[in-house]
């Protein structure tokens, strides 16, 4: 209080001059450099007040505070545009997925401008940089043996000649018998569903009856289970089923010390700590990173070029690619822990 009263008595003339960052904003030696990202809003709808208050406005408040402190600050965001929900919205409105993304990206940008959200850059995930960076990360994982190949049973519509993503299927919930359950979750009882478990499934596109067929997918080998090399593709063929309770020291022993340090020095919520601890306690499991969709980042591997990356693998990379669209020196923000 004494320091505040003293600063007030000395007046505005005694305040440090406002920092004017260069354009584009890049890390500066000797300064506190702050990179702020808002959670990427999904592109298939008009944002409402809850989206703005819970996401971009809180980050905007913090960005303005950082600039008032004369910290060198970059604030980026953008629309998350790949995934099944975009394809579904495109079917509903009779547009292509790209047209849907163009339409709602413009709506989002206009609304945030109206609210005077102080983004340094507002971008999107459907860009060449997104493809380049996502595929580069994929190739690095592949080269290091962190990917697995497996056969998955999936619903296929023979009339549409396509495997159906979860949200392109409706049927009767196997738990509560709700007749309009989606292929990923029942909106009545709230339980998660595997699409092949639905009773009386229907294709949402043509209302035809899909059949269960096998399809090949790629998995991120989170537990880093033992594998033998495949035939020239650099992929592992697992010697245990996906559901086997395998624990491996290779990734988990690297992850646990990092988590302990991050929990001690960071500001994790109690819920985030609890969920993360449960994942570690139960053992990490392989996660599928590909989908039989047309709208997404293409998988650059023979045998999988008709598939795209699953949005949970692809979308977080949007923070990097949006920064890359802002400046070709994006790695100075994302690969520069010293600043």
Automatic annotation (TrEMBL):
Residues 34-337 form the Methionyl/Leucyl tRNA synthetase domain. One of its GO terms (biological process) is methionyl-tRNA aminoacylation. Its main location: cytoplasm. GO terms for cellular component: aminoacyl-tRNA synthetase multienzyme complex; cytosol. The keyword Protein biosynthesis applies. It is an enzyme of class 6 (ligase). One of its GO terms (molecular function) is ATP binding. It comes from the Eukaryota. Belongs to the class-I aminoacyl-tRNA synthetase family. This is Methionine--tRNA ligase, cytoplasmic. It comes from Ardeotis kori. The lineage of its organism: Eukaryota, Metazoa, Chordata, Craniata, Vertebrata. The gene is Mars_0.
């Amino acid at each position: 209080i004494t320091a505040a009263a003293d600063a007030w008595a000395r007046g505005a003339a005694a305040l440090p001059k406002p920092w004017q960052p260069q354009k584009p904003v890049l890390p500066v030696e000797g300064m506190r450099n702050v990179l702020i990202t808002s959670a990427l809003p999904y592109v298939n709808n008009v944002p409402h007040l809850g989206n703005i208050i819970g996401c971009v406005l809180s980050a905007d408040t913090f960005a303005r505070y950082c600039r008032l402190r004369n910290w060198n600050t970059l604030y980026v965001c953008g629309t998350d545009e790949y995934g099944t929900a975009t394809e579904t919205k495109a079917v509903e409105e009779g547009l292509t997925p790209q047209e849907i993304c163009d339409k709602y990206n413009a709506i989002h940008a206009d609304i945030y401008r109206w609210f005077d959200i102080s983004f340094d850059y507002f971008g999107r995930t459907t860009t060449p940089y997104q493809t380049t960076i996502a595929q580069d990360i994929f190739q690095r994982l592949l080269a290091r043996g962190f990917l697995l190949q497996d056969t998955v049973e999936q619903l296929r519509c023979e009339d549409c000649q396509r495997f159906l993503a979860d949200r392109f299927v409706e049927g009767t919930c196997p738990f509560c018998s709700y007749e309009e359950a989606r292929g990923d979750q029942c909106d009545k009882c709230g339980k998660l569903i595997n699409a092949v478990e639905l009773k009386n499934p229907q294709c949402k596109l043509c209302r035809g009856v899909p059949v269960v067929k096998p399809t090949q997918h790629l998995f991120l080998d989170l537990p880093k289970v033992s594998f033998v090399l495949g035939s020239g593709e650099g992929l592992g063929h697992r010697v245990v089923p996906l559901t086997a309770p395998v624990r491996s020291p290779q990734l988990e022993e690297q992850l646990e010390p990092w988590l302990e340090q991050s929990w001690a020095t960071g500001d994790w919520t109690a819920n985030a700590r609890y969920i993360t601890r449960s994942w570690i306690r139960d053992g990490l499991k392989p996660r599928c990173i590909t989908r039989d969709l047309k709208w997404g980042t293409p998988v650059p591997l023979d045998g999988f070029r008709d598939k795209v990356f699953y949005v949970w693998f692809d979308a977080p990379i949007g923070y990097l690619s949006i920064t890359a669209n802002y400046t070709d020196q994006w790695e100075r923000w994302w690969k520069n822990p010293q600043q």
